[in-house]
Amino acid sequence: MDKITIQNLEVYANHGVFPEETALGQKFLVCAELWTEIRTAGRTDDLEYSINYGTVCQEITRFMKEHTSRLIEAVAEQLAEYLLQTLPLLKGITLEIKKPWAPVGLPLDTVSVKIERCWHRAYVAFGSNMGDRRSHIDSGIQVLRDDPAIRVGSISDMIVTEPYGGVEQEDFLNGCLELETLLTPMELLAVLQKAEQKENRERLVHWGPRTLDMDLLFYDDEVLEEPELAVPHPEIPKRRFVLEPLSQIAPYKMHPVLKKRVKELLEELSDRE
């Protein structure tokens, strides 16, 4: 990934724990590495295909002056999120905020916080087999669209499938979607559960009927095993109602553990069936 670098932009702003810091203000130095693709800009000599670093400097200055925080950790987090959400060509950012006048009562050069944040690509499966199935699904997807840290991309066709797991119930309406997010896997899981709860999802019977089910399938190429979440979703290779719609929008997505593409997993499942 290409980078545009800003070094030691001086911003005078009012951030800090102590009253004199918020009342009088102090100098901060901001360093930023903007991750973007600049090949087209380099070949065409057209700023339209790159990020205007002058505009970025102005936005950093304005944001830090208008939004006051106690911790420079909060300043860095909020500023990185703001820039990633507002600059369409920005894929990721390394952001360092230095505090030269840190009131620690000891001689030092500077204190700083440095973070890396970027857009992550994830895939989500959704399904419903109670009431107005399409309405439940649309409502759940809207919850994702309403979150500023999520960009919903491709959405598969919805397919009617028989229930999975041996519990007698109505047929499901299933599909998959692609999204970009600034959230961690656990934070994204919380948003998916929020969407389910909005549709009054109840977890009474394992593999039972539900108004809305939203499962995180992939998150970049990460492999995660937590009590509340496993990524990639362990049931992906067994579920046609996941693989079929997923192959519509991401046939060449590689499973990071099995080292097989989605279309290959679907073909293998069809052979087994």
UniProtKB/TrEMBL annotation:
GO molecular function, one term: 2-amino-4-hydroxy-6-hydroxymethyldihydropteridine diphosphokinase activity
Keyword terms, alphabetized: ATP-binding, Folate biosynthesis, Kinase, Lyase, Nucleotide-binding, Transferase
TM spans (from-to): none
Pathways involved: Cofactor biosynthesis; tetrahydrofolate biosynthesis; 2-amino-4-hydroxy-6-hydroxymethyl-7,8-dihydropteridine diphosphate from 7,8-dihydroneopterin triphosphate: step 4/4; Cofactor biosynthesis; tetrahydrofolate biosynthesis; 2-amino-4-hydroxy-6-hydroxymethyl-7,8-dihydropteridine diphosphate from 7,8-dihydroneopterin triphosphate: step 3/4
Organism domain of life: Bacteria
Annotated GO biological process: folic acid biosynthetic process; tetrahydrofolate biosynthetic process
Catalytic activity: 6-hydroxymethyl-7,8-dihydropterin + ATP = (7,8-dihydropterin-6-yl)methyl diphosphate + AMP + H(+); 7,8-dihydroneopterin = 6-hydroxymethyl-7,8-dihydropterin + glycolaldehyde
Alphabetized InterPro entries for the sequence: Dihydroneopterin_aldolase (IPR006156), FolB_dom (IPR006157), GTP-CH-I_C/QueF (IPR043133), Hppk (IPR000550), Hppk_sf (IPR035907)
Enzyme Commission no: 4.1.2.25, 2.7.6.3
Positions of the Dihydroneopterin aldolase/epimerase domain: 4-117
SUPFAM superfamilies hit by this protein: 6-hydroxymethyl-7,8-dihydropterin pyrophosphokinase, HPPK, Tetrahydrobiopterin biosynthesis enzymes-like
Function according to Swiss-Prot or TrEMBL: Catalyzes the conversion of 7,8-dihydroneopterin to 6-hydroxymethyl-7,8-dihydropterin.
PANTHER family found in the cross-reference section: 2-AMINO-4-HYDROXY-6-HYDROXYMETHYLDIHYDROPTERIDINE PYROPHOSPHOKINASE
Family that this chain belongs to: Belongs to the DHNA family.
Descriptive protein name: Bifunctional folate synthesis protein
Organism name: Qiania dongpingensis
Name of the gene encoding the protein in the UniProt record: folK
